[in-house]
Request: fold
Amino acid sequence: MNFFEAQDRARSRTWLLLLLFALALASFIILAYLAVLVIEIGSVAYHDSRLPEGGLLQEMIAAHSINKMMIVAGAVTAIVAIGAISRILQLRGGGYAIVDSLGGKLIVPAAATGKHRQLVNIVEEMAIASGIPMPQLYTLPDRSINAFAAGTRPNDAIIGVTEGAIEQLDRDQMQGVIAHEFSHIFNGDTRINIRLIGVISGITIISLLGGQLMYMGMIALGASPGRRSWDRDERGGGSAVGIGIIAAGALICLVGSIGLLCGNLIRAAISRQREFLADASAVQFTRNPDGIAGALAKIGKKSGIISNRNAAEYAHMYFASGVSLNLVNMMASHPPLDTRIKRIMRGRPLTEKASRPAAPPPAATPAAGTASGGAAGMFVDALIAQIGTVSAAALQQARRIREQTPAQLGEAAEDPYCARAMIYAMVLERKSAQFRQLQLDHLRDHADTGVYDLTVKLEADISKLDKSACLHLLQQSFAALRSLTAFQKNLFLENLAKLVEIDAQVELFEWCIQAAVSHLLLDDGDCPENANLAKAADYALMLSQLAGAGNPDTVDSCFAAAAAEVQADWPQLTRQKEDAIDSQQLFAAAQRLSTLDPGKKQRLVRAAIIAVAHDQQIATDQELLLRAFFMIIDCSLPLSMETA
Reply:
């Protein structure tokens, strides 16, 4: 199953989630209607002890009409919908609300030491190797061994890891856990997880309302806090009212208990199979089954239970079960640990400390200007197969990139303050001293205090890097940039735009830097959800730019081949001039293209790769533009542009 099939499968799970939600809601309505009937019978029986000869029950049932059923159905639906929608809106910002409720603390990479530094290195390597932005890391103050990933899209993903896991897992085991969580990010599981939280919140709100009614009934009876007995004499008729409210609350709690059952069943239906898939992906990424299996085995010996009182709400998100096991196994959000270990090891016993198998040597990355080995079609198929995956060779290469990065730049990429200066340095003019001085003057006057001096200091190291290395550093800095305040983000984006525009032209590399940063720092509310927003002009503009960044003699043939790939969506596309980049127009087009459904996005991605590889040559500018474009449409691009 490739990246796009996994994304499509995540969408199908959304429909499954809605179906299960509808079934649970229907059960609520039926039970609520019966509860209303019972309450009415009890009320009439209390006020009229003489039952009619025809029987009170028969008369009450006969008196109920379809209108009353509709009223009950409307009320229950409104309550459940309000509970679900309000919770989803609370989590709209991604995983930050979740990690806050679990008591998580942000790991500042620049200040990380010891095992925390090791965790940062593992996540940085995984991000570089996979081609997605560096997620923010949080620690959970818990001695158990567990982790989770959350977020609505790869660009706002976070990963939380318990202190127990950081302290007790070795590097290979932690890498297996992180690879498992990256798989959830790739496959769109983190987005469905947030929706699942909202659905379960809506389902369980009935039970909470019932509990509140019972509490109100106890107050009516005189059992409010601070009173030692039920003072029926003083409250007079309040006793009857209190008993009625308690009875109503008990019935609603009974109805709500079905919601708790439905919530657990929905968790199991949505989550269990995904855990097996994420385990298999982790093995595929690391080529080291002993790592993730060893982590699961340690959880079995120690514990994965998260002690936070809010932990149960997020039970389906954890690496291993974070709450006490359910009495009924079919309701568990995770498969049994033994079953997962057996599937991972495929019958091979897990040793206490297995030696890590040697990873295959990294495949050579084709030099700029060539797409080595095989026809263009084979290259495209091979590259698409790598999207949303990580190879052991790529992890090794990513580790070398991280270790070979100048220490000053590596530290700058991990600090929110320094990261801005580093990115400013990337777009400083190197051909014209006049424009460079204008850029520096602007920073001196408008950037935060000290940023000007830091930019000048970092420029010397930045100027020695090639453009691809700059993109890797940019990707590494994304976790730090997310820590900026709204004011800092706006000021940073304004200054970056001004630096790019000072020479009155936008170079392709400058656009790649500015577009990737802008997309990262946009709020979710600025990213449209409507998949119908993308138009033919957006396809034509992006494919024209990709084809035009390569060999001038093959632009027409590359564009034509790319356009043929998306003819099912747009039968006729006209190549647009790529002489000068209209940065705002191109960025807006890429943003709209990011809203495509997985099927259309797969065709677009294939067309984009054809646009740069049809002539069997990949120019450096084409690869840079392709990587930036993939960042914007929330699609990973492998570290090595391999064709083998």
Summary: DSSP finds 26 helices and four strands in the chain.
